[in-house]
């Protein structure tokens, strides 16, 4: 799929998925995820998708500083309700990477590998999303500040013209370039604490 080159330079993450290993889906259970995977899932690339990607990647790196993160071993709690704002879009990206679901995930085999009930919404957490390891209880809270990287000034007038049916093909193309330029800048700021904020301890449901 042709896509902006910066997708390839966004932070990637490798996870160990014991279910994938058991079922022979990935050698040694190792699965590598890239920003493009989140774009394919969402159907588009935007600040929300980029922020969800970075919050999850950085949180897992913090929870597993010296080892490969384990997919299916992380509980995820959102401060917002599932239908509030863009929470659902963010949750889909988080679920892609962590494997966590509410009640729609894999039911498990012999009492193991159950991916249900690992995600909850409307929880009192001191941030946007709380991540917690099920095995150790270690937790981290993540938040994304999209306003720290503003939209180029020319973008919104172009968007308004597009939505009103008044934009030329060239103007539409220019808007797309400006939109993705902001996404590029967000992804490039993965280590900027003004963009992706991590804090601990997290409120944890780990058992």
Overview of this protein structure:
With 207 residues, this protein is an alpha+beta fold. The chain has one domain (5-149, 189-199): Tubulin/FtsZ, C-terminal domain (60s Ribosomal Protein L30, Chain: A). Helices cover 34% and strands 14% of the residues. The protein is built from six helices and seven strands; from the N terminus they run βαβααβαβββααβ. The protein has helices spanning 18-22, 35-42, 47-63, 87-98, 155-163, 169-188, and strands spanning 13-16, 30-33, 74-78, 119-120, 129-133, 139-144, 196-199. The strands form two sheets. A five-stranded mixed β-sheet has the order 4-3-5-6-7, with helices on one face. Strands 1-2 form a two-stranded antiparallel ribbon. Helix 3 (47-63) crosses helix 4 and helix 5 (155-163) packs across helix 6. The protein is globular, with a radius of gyration of 18 Å. It starts with 12 loop residues before the first strand and ends in an 8-residue tail after the last strand. The model has no long low-confidence stretch (mean pLDDT 94).
CATH superfamily: Tubulin/FtsZ, C-terminal domain
Shape label? globular
Query: How many beta-strand elements?
Result: 7
CATH topology name: 60s Ribosomal Protein L30, Chain: A
Unreliable runs: none
